[in-house]
Amino acid sequence: MSPEKTRESSPQSASKEPPPHHTKVLHLLYHELRPAKSEYSYVIETGEFEKHSDLFVRARSEASSTLWPEITFDDGHLSNFEFALPILQSRGLQARFFITVGWTGQKPGYMGWEDLRSLHKAGQFIGAHGWSHTLLTHCSKKDLQTELATARLTLEDKLGTSITTMSLPGGRSNPQIINACLEAGYTHIYTSTPKSESLPLGSTVGRLNILRSITLDQISAILAANGTALPKLHFLSRIKTAAQSLMGDALYEKLWAISNRKETDPIPAEAAENEDPTHHQ
Ligand SMILES: [Zn+2]
C-alpha cells in the first residue's frame, strides 16, 4: 500500500493531527470562490476565504480552543483549484475536495482530471460527491451503484489512491442511503448537518455550510464557543429537512431558489448556471 493510500484511509488525519486538547472537530463546507463579490449565496469571495483560512490557522494554535476546524469543498468547481488551492498552500492547510465524478473534464466550470491530480499531489484530499449529483434519495438501486461504487472506483483508477470518503449531494440522506454508502466502500460519509464531531470520527460527519451571509465574526464566535452555538443551527437544519419532506424536493428547490436569490446576477448566462440545484444543501 502506498503512503498516499495509508493517509487517505484515515480521514481524521486530513491535516496536521489536532493537539490532544482539541477534542472536537468542526468541518466547514464551501462550494465556489470568486475574486469579485457575488450575490449568490454559495459563492465566497477569495478575500473572505483568505480571512477564514487565517482564522482557522489561529484557532488551531489557540490553547483555549477545544474545537479543531477542518475545510471541505463540495461539487469540484474549478475555482477550488484556481483560487482555493494557492490560499490553502500558502498557509500550510489541507482540505477535503468532494468531486462530482461524472462532471470531471465534462462540465464547463468544473475541474478536469489534471486539476484533480495536481490537487492530490499537492497533499489535498479527494473524496466523492456522487457521479451526477442526483439526490441519492431519488435513486433506484441501479442508479445508486453508479452514484456510489462507479464514482469511487473511477476516482481511484484516475488518481491512483484509495477513496473512502463521500459527501451527500444536496445533503439528502436516510438510513438506507448511509448503509448503501458503507456497502459501496466509503468509511466516512460527510453530511450537511451543522454539528461538531468527537474524535475519532464516526461513519457520518456533520458539516457547517458556509454561505456568503455568514460573517467572519460569526465563524469566529462559533469556534471560540467551542461549538456551543451550533445546536441552534442544528435545530434550523432539522426544520429545513422537515420542510423538504413535507413539500417534496421539487417545490422546496423552487422556494429555495427564490429565497436565496436576492439580486439577479449581472451576467444572464451565469445567473442561469446559478439556479442549478447542484448547490442546494
Ligand atoms: Zn453538491
Describe the protein in words:
Helices cover 42% and strands 16% of the residues. The chain is α/β, with parallel strands linked by helices and 281 residues long. It has a single domain, classed as Glycoside hydrolase/deacetylase (TIM Barrel, Alpha-Beta Barrel), CATH 3.20.20.370. Strands 1, 4, 5, 6, 9 and 11 form a six-stranded mixed beta sheet that branches. A three-stranded parallel beta sheet has the order 7-8-10, covered by helices on one side. A two-stranded parallel sheet has the order 2-3. α2 (46-61) packs across α3 (78-90).
Present the secondary structure layout.
Blueprint: H1 3-8, E1 24-30, E2 32-34, E3 43-45, H2 46-61, E4 67-75, H3 78-90, E5 95-99, H4 113-121, E6 125-128, H5 141-159, E7 165-167, H6 175-183, E8 188-190, E9 197-198, E10 204-205, E11 207-209, H7 216-224, H8 230-247, H9 249-260, H10 268-274
Parallel strand pairs: 1-4, 1-11, 2-3, 4-5, 5-6, 7-8, 8-10
Antiparallel strand pairs: 1-9
Helix pairs in contact: 2-3, 2-7, 8-9
The protein binds zinc ion.
The site of zinc ion has 6 residues, from strand 4.
Largest sheet data: 6 strands, mixed
The CA-CA distance between the termini, in Å, is: 35 Å
- Number of separate helices: 10
> N-to-C SSE series?
HEEEHEHEHEHEHEEEEHHHH
Structural class by helix and strand composition: alpha/beta
The low-pLDDT segments are 1-14, 261-277
* Backbone shape: globular
Estimate percent helicity: 40-55%
Count of structural domains = 1
List ligands, each type once. Answer: zinc ion
**What is the CATH third-level topology name?**
TIM Barrel
Radius of gyration: 18 Å
**CATH class membership:** Alpha Beta
